[in-house]
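#struct-help
A.M.: can someone run this one for me? Single chain, 190 residues.
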Amino acid sequence: MNQGRVVRVLGISGSLRAASSNSALVRAAARLVPAGVEVLIYSELGDLPPFNPDLDTDAVPEAVATFRAALQSSDAVLISSPEYAHGVSGVLKNALDWLVGSGELIDTPVAVINTSPRATHAHASLCETLSTMSGRVIAEASVAIPLTAAAVDAEGNVTDPQLSASLRSAVAALVGAIPPGPLRGSRPTA
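D.P.: on it. Structure tokens below:
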């Protein structure tokens, strides 16, 4: 990792549900990062308008511009997605559609995690979509962490040591996949 720089990872939950286990997983990952890494949680997925190519111009809707800027200032992306009807959630797919033409994910390391080992259809679909968009899906960082309400304490910490170790390992693999050299989203440490 680059010395004296903070590596920025953008954490995205593909669920809008208030009590989402995938959102809890993103928050838990943010607490388990190694020194020199910070996870910024993007929680405005529901603010993005439905994708419309006619609106994808130089003056995109403000929510889209904010989302794209968050990605541009990040060195890697961690996505935790539920599976709905054997697919990726509509809100997450909509967000990705806004990035196809603008290219914020090109060559960006991405971890695809979820809270259900049975969510294989959404996982495969999301990895295919991200790869098509030229994102670099990091297999070692893409795991299912069977998170339950009992595995997370009131502060959002994963209390199960095995789950915590799996999540920490996934984050480390994601950070390890960031190429050496200048970081896109880095800033000097204090």
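A.M.: thanks! The chain has one domain: 7-176.
D.P.: also worth noting: The first helix runs from residue 21 to 31.
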